[in-house]
Structures are given as structure tokens and as C-alpha cells.
């Protein structure tokens, strides 16, 4: 048995036996965690006590008895009122069952007492499991309720490697809307790239012609002329950014997040990570640790180019910026989970393990100008991933298994292209207004949009969540997701814009 909790609050889960269920007589399997990812995701596996042997049918058999006193009845009534259901595993195949139901008037409450299991096998492997809940019994105080189960084995033609296909939902993830959104984003990329190429190249060609004409003037005509445009800030545009320590750390962290996203998506496309509990999270943690040199290279080299000398401090800030944000949020939410006695509460030993890997370090910053570009620059990148974020959020916060990682890879490529194009256009407008402070503007504006609008919209209109625990869990981790996505896009935009700025100024003759 794994966990039990309210249907509408997927992350609000508790140990199965936190409800007064009884345990069968067999005790050959003990509580365990297989991976760090399972521990962090709140997996709480405990043996049910059901005696099941391979290919041995079991008729309906009573395996335990619940002595329903007043306190236990109230616990079951509360669970039924809040639509509690539980999850269990047989040979790592997940099964879900409802705890009970109420009558139409909400006066009487009933508990499902009979677990009817049908297990499909192919050769010597389990390939299919189905659970039917029967035996509805009214909850009456000071009575005894018998819990029973049965097992029916049946031969199946499903291959072992395909046994998780039944849990996927092609009609949802491969819906025409999903395909249309990908096509729409792709057309946006073509339009945006064409627009950038046409407008900027034509505009830059006119700028180059005007600047070349100015070079042919004598000094008096040049002094009397009306000089304007991005050439006038050539002496300032390559200045080191303000706060280069934090700026370079953000760029390095963004590059690392991009590398982690790319590698994890590729691995997920090759391997079916959804077939193993916690494997996606474990893979992401391992890849993040393995790609730390990416952070060090891009952040450290940028800091050195900007004349920074405190490279040891930059190394520590770059290394702990994202882990500090994740750990700080996780520890805060963990205190709430501990108060609720939820399975999502990370055990103390796991917290110590994570703490030794990633040291908690808190950094906060805020930059506001120029406000117009910061507010408007993130609209197109956000629009390019808006629909895909809906499918990703649904798989994480609802009961769907995300498996279309090819779509995710395509959307990541589209996001990178759109981000670079938008930042180049915004940078040109900024420089043309003779404002040389382009580095921070291009990095910060994406932080304003990525995921935040979708986060609030999804909470109020798509997911029927409630309660302090689920609300803090949702907004806490979505804030981490949005900020990490913004840092990644900011780093991508800075890389593309930096190449653009160097290119245009190398073609201008400067006295």
C-alpha cells in the first residue's frame, strides 16, 4: 500500500494506515524507500498483509477485522466527505481505489470492504492489474467490519515492456489542440525569425549607411549634424554590468538549467522513466549535479570578462543559487507537511542527505528598470509554451502521466528561438534609445512572465484544490518552477543578444 488522500489535492497524501484500516496476517515485506526520488515525492510503501502467490487464485477471503469505535468512524467519515482514495502497487503497477461513499443526503456513510483483484500475466511476468471495490458497508459505531479480498489470475497477451501503456492517455496528450498548439508555436517562430531578419537587417543596413555617410563629413558638419542611434553608446555598451557577481551567477545557473532540461528530455525520450517511481526526479537530481561544470564555465568566464576578481565568492554563489531557492522552498513546505503528518513530509534523514549535497544559501535581488521592456518582453516566449505548460501541469498536479517528451523537446527548441529573437529586438530598441543597460534588462524581463500567469490561472480555474497544505505546496513549487524557467530563458536571451551586440559593433568604424 502507498498513500491515501483527497482526490482534488493530489500532493496532500498520507500513509495508507493513517486511516484505521486493518492489516492482513502476512508480514514478509516491510516499509521501504527504493530511491531518493521516491522519498522526496512522498512515496510511503507499506505491506498490506494480503497473501498473494503467483497464478494462485484466491476466493473471497476475510483478511482482517476493523473494530469501529467512535474515533475510527469519525476518521472514515472525514475521509469519505473529502473524497479520499488510496493508491497501492502490485509488482510496481499502480492501482487506485476509493475509500467509501456517502448517500445522496450526506447522512449515512459507507465503506468499501472488498478488494476484488484481477491480475493479468504473460509467461512469468505480471502485465496487468485491475481493482474493483465492492462490499459497501454502512459505518455504524461500535460494530465490527470485516475486510476481504479475492484474486483472479488471467492470461494476457500484453507484453511486459508495454504494460504501462494502459495508464497513458493518448486522447488527452495527443489531442488535436495539442498538435495545433505545436503548429501555432512553430508558425510563430517562422514569423518571428522572418520579422527579425527583415526589420533588423533592413534597419541596420540603413544605420550602417547613415554612419558611413557621417564618416565622410568634415568635423564641422559632423558637429552640426543630428547624430543619434545605437552608435552613440559604443563606449558604454560593453561596460561590465551592474552587480556582475550576481549577474554572472544567474547566467551560469540559467545555462545549467538549460543543459539539465535538454539532457533529461533526451533521456526521457529514450527511456520510459514514467514506469519507475521517482525515476524522473532522481534523474534530474543526478543530471543537475553532473552538469555543475556548465554553471562554472559560463558563469565564471562571464565574471572574468567583466573584470571580477572575487572568483571564489562567485563560484559559491553560482553553485548554490538554484539549490538555495529549491531547498528554502522545500524546507518551508516541509514544515507544513510535518504539521499535517503528510507523507510529503521529507524524513529527517533525507533532509540531512539533501542538505549535505546542497548547502542552504539565500540570495534575494530586485531590479526594476527599464520597466516597459521588462513588462512586454516576456509575452511572446510565454505564449509559445502556454499550451504545453497546461499539459505538464496537468500531469504533475492531476492524475495524468506525461509521456510525450518529443513535444516537450520541440517546445523547448521553439522557446529558445523565440526568446533569442525577442531579446535581440528589445536590445536593438534599447540601444537605439541610447540606453546601454541591456544586460540586466534582457535577463530580468523573462522572470516576470514565465509560468506565473499560468500558475494563478490553473489554480483557480482548472484544479479544484483547497486547504493550506495543498495551496502552499502548489504556489511554493510553482514559484520555484517559474523562477528557474525565467533564469534559463534569461541566460539563453543573454547569450543570443551578446552575440548580436558584438556583431553589430564590429561592423561600425569607431574614431
Structural features, described:
By secondary structure, the protein is of the alpha+beta class. The protein is built from 16 helices and 9 strands. It has helices at 36-40, 70-81, 170-173, 176-215, 219-224, 244-270, 279-290, 292-305, 311-340, 348-357, 371-376, 379-397, 405-432, 438-444, 452-461, 468-506, and strands at residues 3-6, 14-15, 58-68, 84-90, 93-98, 100-102, 109-122, 125-138, 143-155. Strands 3, 6, 7, 8 and 9 form a 5-stranded mixed β-sheet that branches. It has a 4-stranded antiparallel β-sheet with strand order 2-1-4-5. Strand 4 (84-90) and strand 5 form a beta hairpin. Helix 6 packs antiparallel against helix 8, helix 8 crosses helix 9 (311-340) and helix 13 packs across helix 16 (468-506). The longest helix is centred in the middle third of the chain and has 40 residues, at 176-215. Residues 355-369 have low confidence and may be disordered.
